[in-house]
Amino acid sequence: MSFRGTRNLYNLLTIMRIAISTQNPVHPVMVSVKMSIQLTSLETEAQQALNEQQYQAAISLYHQCLETESDRLNDYWYLGLAYFLNQQEEEAQEAWMMPLLSGQLDDHPNWEQALISILDNAIERTCSQDNLLMGKRLQKVIQEIDPDYHNHKLTTAIETKTKVLLEEGIIAAFEKRFRDANVRFLAILQLDDTLSDVWKNLAMIYCKTEDYPQAHRAIQRAIALKSDESSYHHWQGLILEKLGYVDLGITSFKQAIKLNPKNLDAYASLGLILTKQGKIAEAEATYLQAIANFPEHYGCYLNLANLLLDQAKDENHCPPRRFEDIIRFYQKVLEFYENHSFALLGLAEVYQLAQNEEEALWYFASSAYYSAEYESAVEYYTKYIDKNPNNVTAYSNLLTTYEKLRDYDQAIEIGEKSLQQFPTNRGLYKLLIYLYHTLGDIESASAIVARAEKAIPNDAFIQRLKQWLLPITYNTTEEIELYRQRFTDYLHQLIDNSGIDQPETLTQDKIAQLTNSLAEQTNFYLQYQGKNDKPLQQKYGEYAHKVLSLKFPHFVQPRSLEPGLPDRKIRVGYVSACMYHHTVGTLFLGWLKQANRDKFSIHSYAINGKTDAKTQKYSLYSDTFDHIPTNNDLTKIAETILNDKLDILVFPDVGMVPMMTLLAGLRLAPIQCVAWGHPITTGSPTMDYFLTSDWMEAENGEDHYTEKLIRLPNISIPYEMPRLPKVSDPRSKFNLSNSAVVYLSCQSIYKYLPQYDYIFARIASEVPNAQFAFLESNNSPKITEQFSNRLKRAFAEVGLNSEDYCVILPRLSHDEYLSVNLVSDVFLDTLSWSGGNTTLEALACNLPVVTCPGEFMRGRHAYAILKTLGVEETITHSEEDYIAMAVKLGHDPQWRQELKAKIRANHHRLYEDQIAVDALERFYEQAVKDFQALQA
C-alpha cells in the first residue's frame, strides 16, 4: 500500500492511533530473534550517521537493519526520522506506517511513548544544531500523537533566535543593507508567522526596495493579525499611494488617525496626499488638527506653512492675514527647531512674495548657510550686508562661510571689517581667534585676544579664550613647555579674577558670564602635550564645579538611591555627544549591546544633532533613549536625566565637548563614572569612578586620576568586529607604490609630537623602499602643512627628502580608510598618544601593529589591545626598539605574513569580549552596595 498520494503526515499519524484501537489482530510473520553482532554494529553505525547529519547514509543503514530483522520497531521510527530530517516526508510517512500495516504495533502498546521519545531527542538536537525550523516540524509531528506536548527548550531557542534575527534585521535596515534585513525578517516569520510587527518591518523593507506589491501583501498580513494597530494602517496608506490607489490610501490614513489620534506621521501623510489631490481646505484642516494634538512639534507647523505658501505662490498673491499666518507658522518651526533650513527658505520665499527684498535676502542667506550651500550663502550675505550693514550676525555667518570654503584670506578680511564696525562684540573676536587657531597662527590669535581684552576689559569669556589658546600642533619641544607654562599661568589668573572664592560678591550676571565662558571650550589640546595633566585638570574641574554650583544649585545636590533595590533592576544611564559614527560611539556601544537586561535597565541620552545607524543602535540597545538635538541647553539635559532617577550615570567621554564638561561638574546620579573615550581625568569633584582597562594602565595609574580607578579586564570593552569592504581599493588610488613597504600611521596630526619625527626618517634610512601614509588634518590645510614641514626637517637631517617617502592622504570615507589598512604592510602606532579605535580597525584588517607603551593610559591603548589579542611580538619598550621593530618588519615579508595569520586566528580573543562586560556589571553591583552601605 502506498501513501504517496497524500502529503498530510500528521493525519496519517492520527489514523495510526485510530487503526490500532479498532483493527483486527494481525499475526506478523515470525522471524528469528537471534541478535547478531552484525545487526548491533549496523544500528550503531546508523545512529552515528544520524547524529552526524549524514541522513542518506543513515537511511541506507536502517534499511539494512530492517532487512536483517524486520520487527525491530525503533528502527522503523529512526528510519522515518532520517527520511524526515532529509526533507523526504513521503518516505517518512511510509516508514512510520509500516509497523501498522504489518500488525507489529499489537505487541508494542507503548509505541507512542517510544516514538515521542525518539522525536523529542531529535528536537533537542535540532536546537543544538540551530535547525529550529526542523525542530518546529518535529514538534508538530509529536503534537499529532500527544496534543499536550510542548518542548520548552525549542520554545526558548526560537525566542532567542527571533530576538537575535530581529536585532540583526533592524540594524541591517538602519545601515541600508535591505537585502540582509529582508532575509532576517523572513527567517523570523518562518519560525513564527504570527508576529505582526515583523510583517510590518518586512513591508517597510519592501518599500525601501520599491517592491510595493510585496510590501502590500506583508502589511495586509500585519493588519490581519492586529487590525487595531494605527501604524499598520498608516503604512498601508503609504503603500497604496505608491501603487496608485490614492483614495484607498486616504482611507487608510484616516483609519490610522481614528485608531490613534496621536499618530503624527499619519496626519503628515494625510495632509500631503490631500494637497497632491488639490484638496487644500481638507489638508489645512488636517494640519490644524495635528497642531491641536501636537502643539510643540515643529513638523506640524512646517507642513501647514508650506501648504499656505504654495497656495499663495500659485495665486501669485498673499493677503495680509495669510502672510501673517505663514510667517507665524514658520517662526514656530524655528522656535522648536533652531535654524531649520526649510523653514528659513520658506520665510525667504514669503518675504520675496511680499516684495520685502531685505528680509528675503536675509532668509535666503541663512537657509543656504544652514544647508551648507556656502557659495550661495556668500552671494546672499554679501547682498544683504550692502543693504543692512548693521546686522552683526550677517558678518559672523559670512566669516564662517568663507572659512568653510577654505577662503581664509576673505574670512580674515570680513572679520577685521566687522570688528571696525562692532569693536566690542565678543562673538566676532571669538570667531577670529578660532580662525587663526585653526590656521595654526597662534601669534595672530593671541594678538586678537589682546585687542579683545582692551575693547572688553575684565570679560570672563575673553579670559577663558586667552587661557584656552594652545597650538594644535607644535614645531619644537620648547614650544610645548612654553605654551604649557602659559596655560598654567592663565588658568591661575582666570580663577583669581573670577571672584569665585568670594561668591557673595558675584552678581547673577557675573555668574551667568562665568558659566557661559565654561560652555565655550574644553582643555582638549592640553592633553596632547604628553604630560601629567592631573593637577591642571583638577584645578579647572574644581573651578568649573564652583561656578556651576552658583548657577545651578539644584543640580549639584547629593543624590540618594531610589528604594526597591535589590528587588528591582539597577538603573544605568549613558550620556554622550558621540552616539553616532564617532570613535567614542563605536568604542562603547558594546556596553549597552551586551548588557544583562535581567539585572540592569539602560537609559541613554544623545546630546548631539547628528544621527545615523550607530545612533539607532544606541536606541535599540536602550530601555529609554532621549535624543536632545541641541547640546547647549544644560537645564533640559540635566532635568531629563534627573527625571529617570538613575542609580549610576556613565559618561563615556568627558573633555571633547564643552557640554559634557559642564554635565560632569553636576551631580545627576548618586554614582557617577567616566570612561576612557577621552582618556584623561576630569578633575571634577562630582565624578566618582574612572572606568579603564587594566592593560592600559601603568602600575602607578591611580596617581593620574582624581576619580577612583576601576581596572576592567582586557581592553574593558566588547568591541564589534568591523565590517570590512568586500573589495578593497588598490594602492594606486591612494598614491601608494606597489613595490613599497607601506607603513600606515593614520592618527590626527595633533597626536604627533615633534620629538618623535626622527623615527620615521630613521626607518626610511634603513628601509629604502619604505612609504609612510598619513592623513591630512581635519582642522585646516595649514596644520597639515606645518606637520609636512616638520617631516621635511627630520628627513633632511639624515640626508633624505621626505617627499620621496611620505604620502599625506586626503580625508577618506570609512570604506576607503579600511581599504588603506588592507593594502598596507605595517601599522605604526603614535608614541605618547596611542591609537585605540584605529588599532582595533587595523587588526581587523590583520595589519601588524608596532607600538611602544607610554607613561599614561592614553599612550597605552595599542599595547593593551595587542596583549588582549595575544600577539605581543611587536610591542616595544623604547624608541630604539620601536625603530628596530619597524625595520625588521620592513625587511621580512614572510614574518609579516606569519603575524597576519596569527592576528586573524586570534580575532576571537579581542572582538565582542563578554568578559569585560561581566566585570563592568559586577562593578556596577558592587558600587551600588558600597553606596547603600554609606547611606545606611
TrEMBL record:
InterPro entries from the UniProt entry? Glycosyltr_41/O-GlcNAc_trsf, OGT/SEC/SPY_C, TPR-like_helical_dom_sf, TPR_rpt
Q: What class of enzyme is it?
A: transferase
GO molecular-function annotation terms?
Answer: protein O-acetylglucosaminyltransferase activity
Source organism's superkingdom? Bacteria
In terms of PANTHER family, this protein maps to:
PROTEIN O-GLCNAC TRANSFERASE (PTHR44835:SF1), UDP-N-ACETYLGLUCOSAMINE--PEPTIDE N-ACETYLGLUCOSAMINYLTRANSFERASE SPINDLY-RELATED (PTHR44835)
Keyword list (alphabetical) reads: Glycosyltransferase, Repeat, TPR repeat, Transferase
Q: What is its EC number?
A: 2.4.1.255
O-GlcNAc transferase C-terminal domain residues are 547-714, 730-907
Q: TPR repeats at which positions?
A: 196-229, 230-263, 264-297, 358-391, 392-425
What name does the UniProt record give this protein? protein O-GlcNAc transferase
Q: Does the keyword Cytoplasm apply?
A: no
Q: Which family does it belong to?
A: Belongs to the glycosyltransferase 41 family. O-GlcNAc transferase subfamily.
The biological pathway it contributes to is: Protein modification; protein glycosylation
Query: Is the Repeat keyword given for this protein?
Result: yes
